[in-house]
Amino acid sequence: MSATATAGAETQGSDRRETLRRILQGDLASLRVVIGLALIWVIFQSQNDRFLSAENLTNLMLQITGIALISIGIVYVLLLGEIDLSVGAVSGLAAAVMAVLNVKHGWNPYLAIAAAIAVGLAIGLLQGFLFSRFGVPSFVVTLAGLLAWQGALLQVLGSTGSINITDPKITGLANTFYDGATAWILAALVIAAFGATLFLGHRRRVAAGLEAESPTGMLVRFVLVAAVTIVAVAVLNSDRGIPLALLILLAFVVGMEYVARRTAFGRHVFAVGGNAEAARRAGIGVNRVRTVVFGIAGAMAAIGGIMIASRLLAVNQGSGGSELLLLAIAGPVIAGTSLFGGRGSVWTALLGALVIGSISNGMDLLALSSAVKFMVTGGVLLLAVIVDAVARQQRQASGRV
Amino acid sequence: MATAAPLLELKGVSKRFGPVQALDRVDFAVRAGEVIGLVGDNGAGKSTLVKTIAGIHAADGGAISFEGREASISKPQDATELGIATVYQDLALCDNLDVVANLFLGREEVSPGPGQVSRQLDEARMEHQTGELLSNLAVTIPSLRSEVGTLSGGQRQQVAVARSLLGEPRVVLLDEPTAALGVAQTAQVLQLIRRLRERELGVVVISHNLVDVFEVADRIVVLRLGRNAGEFDAEATTEEHVVSAITGVGAEGERKNGENGEERR
Q1: Which among B92, B101, B142 has CB closest to A14?
Q2: Which terminus of chain A has a lower count of CB atoms within 10 Å, N or C?
């Protein structure tokens, strides 16, 4: 016990430097994105004062939900250092499965949703198995999937080509709002849960005799999160209230971030992405981890597809097509998840979708053409990838002596 | 120095890769609290011997006994279960994970709870154990939460060695632990090897660097062309003797392969 205490005292000074380094190198990525997002918002607000209105911000949240959910699965795939090009097609196919089962076959909406998610999960597991078992590059497996599942979408939709969703249970996913007192109770619950997590984590470290975060640091984080929550709820409440879709998205972000950061499985995902050979020698079932991660990507794609269908009230032959796939991959990369594997966070799915959604929404308000929209989004993505590559080079240059 | 019965003993172990006889009736023993320097020219069979002990290659012939009992090692898990840990030259660490995560990789401590996915990593316990292990070994790392990729080569080597100790092995095999390290870092790693000896572990160090071997080893085992080519007490021999055993060209005239190493036990 005393040995640890002295060791702790010795390393305290260098710990502070280490924290500073982390802020500069690691967490700088998310800070950079938040600043970038603020910049985007200021620019659009100065061009059109409706941009930061409560109504438009609520719309923005609804617009990004589907894509951010798909991006959550992409984050896991990127953590492995792999890519999944099929998520767009899978999201369309899953939504079509749900719509056909519910509208044409009269299935219970929850059963139809569960079936759609099961289809996405099964597709993902199959692709993951093919990739890990036969060593086919994930790029190729999922490119084949992209084509095949698009074909399956047309097959499932049949001759009608478009199905309108009318079941209130399904359309309610994207069109339900909690306002007034309910919204504030939700906000209080979120803040209390965050505070409790902070406090319990701190107590556990102290109990184990480890150096714990300073009370000031914890207070700053708590106040920051509470303030953001309160402002967000105040804004959303002045329009229609907190969208159910946003709550679903946040629940998935928090849940999947927990799995990535706090569980042995998540640790193994990072390890495989960082050094697959080291992970294998440490006794980790590398192929199992890979298969499950692609399963997660498929399931999240299905969930995203369901949310998009719920918002658009229909599934058609174009569902899950056009730029959805590229934006779902671009989002996390823009927000700092590395394309090279082993580095990133589930929060980048939300942040990235916010950046891309803001650009798209703002340009729509300014009545700019799709041409400009695509070029600007492409430019932002390119910039983000360059930043990622440069950061990696710097790590490699400074990492090993 | 070690006097007890050998912890790990190989008798007449052979290994053939197609036409190449990589190991030819090699005898080898390591006792608790003893550091063995395993030396030899390229292709002498050092790595093959270590890989045979580590379970990466199964031996074609000969007998292996561990703590006096006959043992068979045909896969890495067999070696691990016996209590043999190997630290490879390329270290096999995940640069993107911190020291604690690397140490516990593949054997994470989790809090009790339902379902494998929901069970939380017990970071506090892992960090506490890491801190104790490293301070027992007098390994200094800037922070247990540093990413391993940001550490120096010597620190990475020490983390890799410390990690091999988590399974509480009896024998530790180190493949070229000082290769590509600077003077100060080499000294740190050699100091760590001495601490393994103090913990009554049997330690086998493969090295090309005779200076390092003499610095740390109690006994020096020389392999040449897959055969035993001599065994020396590090205190009582000189570098020339070892070199002549390695090359097979002696200062006191030419040696025949194997049979006439000095102080052979």
Answers
A1: B142
A2: N
